[in-house]
């Protein structure tokens, strides 16, 4: 049985107190819940939230790993405003690179993303690399690829599980990616149908990760 990988992407949402409250509610909801297989759960949050989340995850003993949503393409030095990979690795284990919102709103190019991948890799961060289709180049060293069609992100219109499976099959064939997940309007209603596809190793929910109830519901849906 495949180990399912779920990476919640909070995007630019939540204050520290809201993030801590999310964890406490999630802990209460999951305390009596036994899954048939244990998914690998990563929560990708704003930089400001990572340290308080880390402390609270450890205090509550929740099996969630943390991820950042971006990383500097440079190392330490005179890069005002940038957060570098070594700084992130002090607190988190994962980073999302190449999300379509970074490509669109922050003009991140494939060349820049390659630099980010190199920085993240050398710091020992796990990399979730987002691509909008099966023609986008995937750097060889990433750990997880997320197929996220742009039209499906935050729109309520997901890809069909069959098409996502076929695109992911191509991504697996042309890249060295071992694990490829699907993202784009994943909900508790549709998550199981994506996971049931043979090529799909997990999901990247944005909106459905924002409340502990809906995130918990995704896990419940995967357990049946
Ligand atoms: C995302 O954050 O990458 C995403 C797919 O968001 P949503 O699940 O809200 O479509």
TrEMBL record:
Pathway: Carbohydrate degradation; glycolysis; D-glyceraldehyde 3-phosphate from glycerone phosphate: step 1/1; Carbohydrate biosynthesis; gluconeogenesis. The keyword Cytoplasm applies. One of its GO terms (cellular component) is cytosol. Its EC number is 5.3.1.1. It is found in: Cytoplasm. It holds the Pfam family TIM. It catalyses: D-glyceraldehyde 3-phosphate = dihydroxyacetone phosphate. PROSITE patterns: TIM_1, TIM_2. Its main location: cytoplasm. PANTHER family: TRIOSEPHOSPHATE ISOMERASE. Homodimer. This is Triosephosphate isomerase.
